[in-house]
Amino acid sequence: MWKPIQLAKANISSHPRAWIAVGIGVAGIVILSETHRRRRRRNKPIAKEDFGAFVERFELLPFPQPPPPAARLALAGLTFAVSDSFEVKEYLTGFGNRDWKSTHEPAEKTAVVVTALLKNGAKCVGRTVMDELAFGITGENVHYGTPVNPQVPSCIPGGSSSGSAVAVAAGLVDFALGTDTTGCVRIPASFCGVIGFRPSHGAISTIGVLPNSQSLDTVGFFSRDPSVLHRVGHVLLKLNSVEPRRKRCLVFADDLFQVSKIPIHRTVHIISKVIESLSGYQAPKHINLGKHIASNVPTLKGFCDAPTKLQNGTFTLKGLSSAMLSLQRYEFQSNHEEWIKSVKPKLGPDVAERVNATIETTPENIKSLYKVRNEVRASLHSLLKDDGILVVPTTADPPLNLCTKKKFSFEFLDRILALTSIASMSGCCQVTIPVGKHNDSPISVSLISFHGADKFLLDTVLDMYSCLQEQVSIASNSLPLPDTNGNLDVSELLKEKGNAAFKGKQWNKAVNYYSEAIKSNGMNATYYSNRAAAYLELGCFQQAEEDCSKALELDKKNVKAYLRRGTARESLLRYKEAVQDFKHAIVLEPYNKVANLAEKRLRKLTKWLTEKEGRREGASDRLTERGDELTVGDFDLGGAKNGWEKRDRGRVMAMQGLRRRGTSQRSIVFVSGDGGLLPVSSSVSMRTK
C-alpha cells in the first residue's frame, strides 16, 4: 500500500506546478476560513476584559478614616472611575485621543472633584474610555476600541462618557464620573441601563477637567444604586443633609412622549402609578413643552428652519438643539483650534467630520446663542417654579446596533439631541432613571428640575426609585400592550376630564369619563380608584368598593384605593373590613392622617358595638330626642341593604338602622360624619322582622 503513495509523491515531486497548485489551494482555504471567522466575530461581539471600559488601571487611595468616635467618611468603601478628561496628578490625560496624550505633559494637579471624592473615603481605580475630545454620542473610539454594553453587547453604549457608564453597568465600580455637554452622561446611562445625573450648570467644579464647551460642560456621575448616587451628589454638590420636605408636582411633556419610539405604557404610565402610590406628590400636570418654549423663548426663532412651524414641539426643540450645537462649536473652536491645526491629530471618521466642520465654521449670532440660553432657563423656571419636575424621554430611540448603517443618520442625531438640549441649554439638572427593557434593550425616563434644585431632584430619585422598580416589574410581567404611542393620551385625556368634572362636583359626569377611560385602558388602577371616589360622592358604596378592589388587584400599593374602600365599607357598616383597609394604608404610609384617624375611630366603635352586643338581651338604654324620652330594648344590627344615604357638609354619610323587635315606630341609626360614628335617634319607620 505504501508504493502507490510513493509513486504519487514521486509524480508530484517531478511536477513543480502541482506543488504550486496545492499551495494556492491551501492558502485559499486558510484565507476563506479567516474571513469567515472575522465575520462571525464582527456579527457577534466578544466581551473584552473589563468590557473594554478602561483606558488604564491605577489606584488612588482614599484619605484615612478619622479616629472614633468621629463618623465614617461619607463614601467609605466605595470605588469609582473617571473618564479620560479628568486630570490626575503625574498621569497623562488622553482626552480619548492618542495624539492628545503624546503632545501634553502629565497633570500637575488632580481635578477638584476627584480630590473631593478621595477626601470622603472613595477609592479611584482607573480611567475610562470616552469619545474623542468629548465630541460624540455613540461611545465608539478608534484608538481604544468601543466599550461593550453589558446590557446589550450588540449595541452601542452611548457617549461620550461610554467607559464610565459601562464600568458601572458591569459592576466594576460603585460609581463613575463623566462629563455631560450635549447628553454625554444621560445618553450612555440610558443605553446601559444605569442611573445618570447631570447637575445644574456650574454647581460642580470643572477645575482640572478638560473642556469641550464651558457654557454646556458639567461633571456628571453614574451609579446602579440610588443611595450611592445620593451620597456622591451630596459630596460633590456640598449639600446640606437636612432640608424641609416639600410637595412635588410632576409635569409630563406629552408632545415629547408622542414622538418617542418607546411605548408610553413602559414610561408615562409607570411614573403615573408611582405618583399615585406615594405621599407628597401633587396631581400630575400635562404640557406641550414645544409650545411652551416657543412662546417663552422669542430669540429661538432665528435658529428654526421653519418659523411658521415653531408651534410644533419637534421643530421647536430641533431649533433649540441647533442653537446648542452652534454654541458648542463656537466654544470648542476657541478652546482647541490652535492644537488641532498644529498637530493635525488622527481622529475617527465621524469625530473628524464634526471637528473639521467646527474649525472651518465662522461664528455668527454669538450674542443670540447666550440669549437663547438665558431665555430657556427662565422659561423652565417659570414652568417648574419651586416644586415642579419635568418628565421627558431621555432618548427617542433605543440604542442602535453596532453594525447598523443608520447609527449616524441625521434623523437619529436630531431626535436624540432635541431631547438632550433641554437641560443642556437651560442649565437645569436632569437625572436618567432606567425603567427596564423593551425589545431586549434598556429604556429610561428623565426627570428635570429647575437650575439649582439638585438636592430636590436627588431626594426625589431616592424617594421614588424602589416603588418605580416595583412598577417596572409589574409592567414587564403584565400582558403585552400595543407598541404605539398614537393617541397616547386618549385614556389620560378622559381621566383628566373626569378629574375636572369631579372638582366641579359633577359626580355623574366624572363617573362617565372614568368609565370611558377604563374602556380605553382597563389596566390602569388610577381610573378605577378615581371612579370609586366619584361613586362615594354619589353614595354608591357597593360600586365604590368593587372599583377599589379592582384597583388593588392592579396595584397592591395604591394607598388611595385602600382609603376609599375603607370609607365605602365603613358606610356599609362592615367595620372590621374597613379597619383592615385603613391599617393597610397605614403600613404603606405610616403618617397618613386620614388613615390613622379613621382606624382609631373605628377601633373605638367596634369596641363599643361589641360591648352593646354582649348586653343586648334584656338591655335597656335611654335616648332623648327633642325632649322626648325613648326607651329602647333588644335591638338587632340591621343589614346594609336597609340603610339610606344622607349628604352633609360636602361629604356622603350613611345612616343605618338598628331594628327593634316588634316595633316599626322608632329605630337607632349611626351617622358617619366628620365627628365620627355616633348613635343617634330617629323617627323613621322601619320594617320589623
TrEMBL record:
Question: Amidase domain spans which residues?
Answer: 72-238
Q: What are the start and end residues of each TPR repeat?
A: 525-558, 559-592
Superkingdom is: Eukaryota
Keyword DNA-binding annotated:
no
Q: One of this protein's Pfam families, by short name?
A: TPR_1
UniProt entry keywords in alphabetical sequence: TPR repeat
Name of the molecule in the record: Amidase domain-containing protein
